[in-house]
Specification:
Blueprint: H1 2-88, H2 91-112, H3 117-137, E1 140-142, E2 156-162, E3 173-178, E4 181-183, E5 186-189, E6 191-196
Parallel strand pairs: 2-6
Antiparallel strand pairs: 1-4, 3-6, 4-5
Amino acid sequence: MKKENLEDKEQMNGTEDTIEGQEQEQKASSQIEKEEENKEEEIEEELSEAEKLQVELTESKDKYLRIYSEFENYRRRTAKERLELISTASEELIVNLLPILDDFERAQNQENKKADAKAMEEGYQLIYNKFKNILEQKGLKTMDHKQGVEFDAELHEAITQIPAPSKKLKGKVVDVIEKGYYLGEKVIRFAKVVIGS
């Protein structure tokens, strides 16, 4: 009986060992399966990340090309507009000056007919005033130059120096040869002056 009990115990122990071995094998195989699944998931994630990065790269390239082409179109359009503006910039001024040209042509026709000298002088004065008014409307201003004004290199261009008629005129404007002009606030022609030394 004792032998039988021992044998039964050994069988039970063997069975328990077998069951434990089987359980360990199952655990190990399930652990291996989980590890394999995790590796597959990681590979899928890596692939999906690579795919995501590829999609982002494609979108970025497309966006860059669109922005670049928009900029090129803008650059071409502004260059074309600038050329048109330069070619037609003086159009308005010329259109305003055409009536003065017509007036000069009429005056020449009257001169050929030997018209009255006083009437001719009045006609030229009218044309001069009309011309001056148009230029002033466009922003032209005459510089105020008087004899005795201090020489200013930013406004004047010295043509020559002469001995000063008086001590007060040394280093100052003695005579104005050509008037200077502003267009708005910008000097567009310096006054040509004679200064005393």
